[in-house]
Write a structure and sequence with these properties.
By secondary structure, the chain is α+β, with helices and mostly antiparallel strands. The protein has 3 helices and 4 strands, in the order E-E-H-E-E-H-H. Helices cover about 40% and strands about 25% of the residues.
């Protein structure tokens, strides 16, 4: 069954650094507006844990991104310009994760 972008939606946000403390909640007239807000306005994952509720369905940040990238998405997309600091942080986290994986492989 196709996703209905016209249904009302709620976005929930939690701070990952402060042990999941809730930092935000917003209601939207349509799921399409909520998806656009989550993808284009919020800081990139992993800074915030974000999820969306539409009707009785729950969507995590990855599902929100898939809905945004879908050809059925109803709103025009705005290109997102990542801040340099966020890009550097992401690169640093990626390198650390690769180093940890290499260390684990070396132990086995």
């Amino acid at each position: 069954m196709p996703f209905d972008y016209s249904l009302p939606a709620e976005i929930f946000m939690q701070d990952r650094k402060r042990r999941g403390r809730p930092v935000g909640y917003r209601r939207f007239r349509t799921a399409a507006e909520a998806i656009r807000f989550a993808v284009e306005e919020l800081p990139p994952y992993p800074a915030l844990e974000t999820w969306m509720n539409v009707a009785d369905e729950h969507f995590d940040v990855h599902a929100i991104r898939r809905l945004y990238n879908s050809s059925e998405y109803t709103l025009p997309r705005r290109p997102r310009q990542p801040m340099l600091r966020n890009a550097e942080s992401y690169d640093r986290l990626s390198r650390r994760a690769e180093e940890r994986q290499a260390a684990v492989r070396g132990r086995t």
